[in-house]
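Continuing from the previous page of notes. For each protein in this section, the sequence appears first, followed by its structure tokens. Read the first protein now.
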Amino acid sequence: MIQDLSLSRLRQIIKSHFKQKSATELYQEPSVLHKEACESPQDILVQALNLKQQIIFESNATHGFIKYEPSLFQALVLHIVETGLQDESVRAKLSPLLEVASVTDEQLMERANRIISE
């Protein structure tokens, strides 16, 4: 029904329809991510990595708005995982890897899975 609908206008309509959050809103979301004490360490890690991907997508998709540096994403993920882990023994075993800024998502998942299986 809308004539001459541009791609950016269509994105805006779809975002508002699905109530998609901006990169800034997503970046502030970690404070509510680890409130569920019953979540497993893998759940916390997957949520953090998912949030990271959403922020990257939103940050790159917004034109002229706030852009977040990739190093901030990594620091955010590591912080979410460290503060979100309820099990002290899992946190202690994963902690050395969480201090390495260059750790990959795959390395985090592999180590977390290995710690849980032990």
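Done with the first. The second protein uses the same format. Note its length before scrolling.
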Amino acid sequence: MLGKYDFSYQITVDLLTGDGSGGLIDFVAANGDHIYAEGTAFGGPSNIPNFNEVTENYVITGGTGRFIDATGSFTISRLVSNLTAISSGTFEGTILALH
């Protein structure tokens, strides 16, 4: 279990073409252990006026400490406001850690 965490997050999504690349996430557990993931995205118009939908798919590539051999995957689904560029959403997936 990851427990309480912070994370840094970077991805570029071209909402005109729908393509997204360069997805990098670094989750940092409360004790300082890291989980690293790489991913891609797809974005486009949503059914809600003035919002775009973005779906991101990530694969866990490893980590440090108890997550050194971590594997798994997760998906982030979010809406992005065309007016403010602020987004919110959810993520769901599985982290398998052997330590």
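What the second structure shows: The chain has no helices and six strands. The CA atoms of residues 78 and 89 lie 4 Å apart. We return to this in next week's lecture.
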